[in-house]
Amino acid sequence: MPHPPPHPERLHALDNLRATMMWLGIVLHVAVIHLAGPSPLPWRDNQTTPAADLLVAFIHAFRMPVFFILAGFFVALLIARRGTRAMVRNRLQRLALPFALFWPPLFALCGVLALAFMHRMARGTWGLDPALMQTAPSTPAGTSTMHMWFLWMLLWLSLGTALAHAALARLAPAAPRWLGGVMARLGRTPWGLALLTLPLAGAGMLYPDGLLRPNGAFLPPWTEWLHNGLFYGFGLALYAHREALLAHYVRRWPWYAGAGLVLFCATGALFEARPHAAEGLPEALRLGVALAYNATAWCWSLALIGGFLAHVPQRSAWLGYLADSSYWVYLVHMPMTIGFGALLFGLEWPAGAKIAANIAATSLLSLASYHLLVRYTAVGALLNGQRRTRAPRPLPGSAHAR
Questions:
Q1: How far is it, in rounded angstroms, from Cα 168 to Cα 174?
Q2: Beta-carbon neighbour count of residue 29 at 10 Å?
Q3: How many CA atoms lie less than 13 Å away from 345 in the CB half-sphere?
Q4: How many whole angstroms separate alpha carbon 34 and alpha carbon 47?
Q5: Percent of the chain scored above 70 by pLDDT?
Q6: Which of 282, 288, 283 minimizes the C-alpha distance to 268?
Q7: Which range among 13-22, 128-137, 288-297, 312-321 shows the weakest confidence by mean pLDDT?
Q8: Is the distance from CB of 280 to CB of 323 less than 8 angstroms?
Q9: Count of beta carbons in the 10 Å neighbourhood of residue 262
Q10: Cβ-based neighbours of 112, under 8 Å, separated by 6 or more
Q11: What values do phi and psi take at 376, rounded to 5?
Q12: Inter-helix orientation angle 175-186/149-171, to 10°
């Protein structure tokens, strides 16, 4: 079984994992349109399926935890290689500036497309009526960061890391090493993962079904800071103890994957035990769901890290391209899923066919726009940290042109 290098110049496996998680965002936001159960969004297709609920629950279990673990890992890497100030400059350039540039037009575009979708739902025609948004039961109150809440929260977690790093370096220089060591020990044993699950379950208990749901607010509740911050903090510790932990996850990723599957099935069984017509889960079931689902998040996140290191360790042409495009795809996919969903609304296709069509159309348009408008431009340099150049075309009559 391969072991990760102790001092890697670039862990392509983690880039590949990040690209895969980015693409799953398209799958997630398309599936939400076809939920058979309660939806967090006010727009929904006329064709729904319980398979969409299962798909959303499956992806949601690990996608954002993986993102925050990787985010903490790369922040720690930046501090180790370039220093705290350089890390702050990097995060301002790669997180704050893209958020400031892209959030306003994306917020407006998503709002217009959502209104058009809801107009089709309510009246069967194309149109824009803001009153529909006000009467929708699932509409979030106030201005939302939408799907870009991850950038917003990660920005503040990164800046907070810089402040904490500077303060602890003066007041308690040994504290980061001690805290990282504790997190590392917890992250490689079943009892340790159980302890890491407890604060997440405690936060989940404050929600009707035992599961934390991001609300997209510019001032997120403390439960979101605790939940996402714990995964992010583990990512910081993962970098500091990468030699031992990454090798452990490479060896044990099938065990973590299997344990996560058992816990995920247990979560489903607890939901099935819900009393009929109950709006939320009873307290005992809510606690069981909070514990099982958050333990699933830990197990599957570590399984994915180990599995990608073991089996997808190198940069391939297509995975490398997806990794390069992933930031752009993350930013622009949301309005596309809404727009294509509105176009498909009313068609008497099976829900599965609509989901597949929307995913394919959104993926193709996202990648095409990246290649034509972003990859070789200043926008690509802003998002990826470097500006790519087109390969020179061979001159007529040269050996390469024959």
A1: 8
A2: 22
A3: 26
A4: 6
A5: 90
A6: 288
A7: 128-137
A8: no
A9: 13
A10: 128
A11: -110, 25
A12: 130
DSSP-derived secondary structure letter, 277 = T
Query: From residue 28, how far is each of 14, 147, 333 by CA, in Å?
Result: 21, 11, 11
How many DSSP H helices and E strands does the chain contain? 14, 0
**Whether the Cβ atoms of residue 300 and residue 257 lie closer than 8 Å to each other:** yes
42's tokens: 């006010």
Tokens of 368: 């095409």
Let me know how long the chain is. 402
CA distance 59 to 53: 10
Q: Are 231 and 63 in contact (CB under 8 A)?
A: no
Other beta carbons within 10 angstroms of residue 279's beta carbon come to 8
Chain centroid to CA 337: how far?
Answer: 16
Q: Could you report the per-residue pLDDT of 269-287, keeping only the tens digit for each?
A: 998 888 765 667 888 899 9
Residues 6+ apart with CB under 8 A from 316: 16
Please give the full DSSP string across 110-138, using - where no structure is assigned.
Answer: HHHHHHHHHHHHHHSS----HHHHHH-TT
- Which tokens go with 173? 């220089």
C-alpha–C-alpha distance, residues 134 and 399, integer Å? 65
**Average pLDDT of the chain?**
89
Distance CA 179, CA 174 (A): 9
Tokens of residue 127, six digits:
């149109």
Which residue is listed with tokens 């969004």?
41
| H helix or E strand, kind and range, residue 231 | helix 222-240
What does the block give as tokens for 367? 């990648």
List beta partners, residue 35: 49
Query: For 63-89, how does the pLDDT look when each residue is reduced to its tens digit (9 = 90+)?
Result: 999 999 999 999 999 999 999 999 999
* Inter-residue contact 213 to 40 (CB < 8 Å): yes
d(CA 302, CA 248): 10
Q: Could you tell me the pTM of the whole model?
A: 0.91
Q: Could you give the 3-state DSSP secondary structure of residue 49?
A: strand
pLDDT score of 40: 84
Characterise 299 by phi-psi region: left (phi > 0), alpha (psi -120 to 50), beta (else).
alpha
Position 149 confidence tier, pLDDT thresholds 50, 70, 90: very high
